[in-house]
């Protein structure tokens, strides 16, 4: 549902609520009329001659409440009871009168807005300008203003948030300008101008990293971050140059990352403050103040995007997992078959079997080829790499053919843990590598334990072979 549809939905709700209020008003008006008629008879006429009429009026006002009818028949023969009865009716009438003038005013106002709602819906539906009427040749009544009043009515009730109110009002304001504007350049400008509000109100930020540094340096680095922030805001065309000047002067790598993140936090705080200011009704309705806030927001956002990209590039360089040729020592004894134990989940199922579900079936034979080839020492050196430059991947071996990657880790004495596998889609799919590297490695505490793992590994290899035979499609091998 787009914004216009949501506004139309609110207009329909307003019309429905108006009709409910109108019904209440008419019921109350009728009851007050009945009270006036009843009290007039009691005060000015001989009640013995109007018993039926009075009974009908009491029934219309109080329904099945027979207490009032009994009281009326008593007052036929007792003047004091008659006075009490009249006083009670007047008290009841005053209760009905209470709030009636507010309800009457609400219905009068609501009638105009309900009629306007139907016109506004038509304007949206057929993409025509809002209705405007001149009064006395001067004052203007516009459906645009009526629409804003209805939106504000629901905001005041708490049915929509302040953010939603501003988005709807922004949509209402842009409606006429786009329809009535003939110049294409002006139309583009209008679209640009009014699209900036939703961009701010719908903003979101990616979670920033946490960098651990020595506590004794934090105060100094925070002050330095503020100093750099002030500098780059004044000179946004030199963001990276300014940072690198400071880096060469005072910081190590971790402190440098901490300062960048701190500056990003400063900017985030300012962007959020702009968002909160726009939610202030008085500021939003003041176009001059609103435009200043929007301009400042986008200036800071531009700095934020450039700095965030710079930081991400730094982290990308750090997180590159290097795939290097495996040495003779790292490859182990190639004269005997390698023993492969498999990482399992809590229920004992091998992770590689779960990973197979996430790769195309045409790669199934490749997976079996790589695992059997490593175990039997028949893979070429180009199909095996040692992974470096990453603590989590330390000593891990990567088996590779086409896009398939199988990750292993040496345990001891020519025994290797098969951690998992995946299809490599990016040049440096760090998340996949880290996710697999985090898996449990079989713990061998005794020869008996090793024997159990050998038996279980045979079962897993048999399951893998059966899976490839039953579901594998002719692929790259």
Strand percentage lies at: 5-15%
Strand order of the largest sheet: 3-5-6-7-8-4
Low-confidence stretches: none
User: Helix and strand string, N-terminal first?
Assistant: HHHHHEEHHHHHHHHEHEHHEEEEHH
Q: Care to count the β-strands? A: 8
- Portion of residues within helices: 55-70%
Largest sheet descriptor: 6 strands, mixed
Global morphology:
elongated
How far apart the termini lie comes to 49 Å
Mean pLDDT: 81
Please state the structural category. Answer: alpha+beta
The total count of helices amounts to: 18
Radius of gyration: 39 Å
Describe the fold and architecture.
The protein is of the alpha+beta class and 477 residues long. 65% of the residues lie in helices and 9% in strands. It has 18 helices and eight strands. The strands form two sheets. The chain has a six-stranded mixed beta sheet. A hairpin with a 3-residue loop joins strand 1 (132-135) and strand 2. The longest helix is centred in the first third of the chain and has 42 residues, at 3-44. The protein is elongated. The model has no long low-confidence stretch (mean pLDDT 81).
